[in-house]
């Protein structure tokens, strides 16, 4: 990997990263110009190619790029940045387990689907020795709601 924050002595940043292994390859080329067209405007581009092999599951190949644009807000050091990203993802070598009709045919809710679904974010820690002696292994503390209860229209008579 090569990275510099003052490429050619003009304040530009350049990153060239080549990483490879048996399961993953990651190639990145990025360039940022802090004074685009000799103005106090930042412009940048980041191009990448990634191949990741998830053993026994699938291979994911990603190619893409990110364009960055930044400009000052007011007279201080505050800046506004916006990005446009494009990524093409291709999944290959999918494990046969994902295409197993017996696995796909299994309905986890054979009698009736749930009416409501919600997600909550908990912090789990190991329980104390007294609780573990009683078979309780975890203490959990609700941190926040990840998303509120939702329902599929028509499932509970509400439309």
Q: What does this 3D model show about the protein?
A:
The protein has helices at 101-105, 129-133; strands at residues 2-7, 12-20, 24-33, 42-54, 58-72, 79-92, 116-126, 138-151. The chain has two domains: 2-95; 112-159, no CATH class. Strand 5 (58-72) and strand 6 (79-92) form a beta hairpin. The protein is 6% helix and 58% strand. The chain is mainly beta.
Descriptive terms for the model:
159 residues, mainly beta, six-stranded antiparallel sheet, two-stranded antiparallel sheet, 2 helices
Strand order of the largest sheet: 1-2-3-4-5-6
Q: Spans of 5+ residues with little confidence (pLDDT < 50)?
A: none
Work out the helicity level. under 10%
> How many β-strand stretches?
8
* C-alpha geometry: extended
Our estimate of the beta-strand percent is over 45%
Q: How many angstroms does the end-to-end distance come to?
A: 56 Å
Helix/strand-derived category reads mainly beta
- Mean pLDDT equals 87
Short description:
This protein has helices at 101-105, 129-133; strands spanning 2-7, 12-20, 24-33, 42-54, 58-72, 79-92, 116-126, 138-151. The chain contains two helices and eight strands.
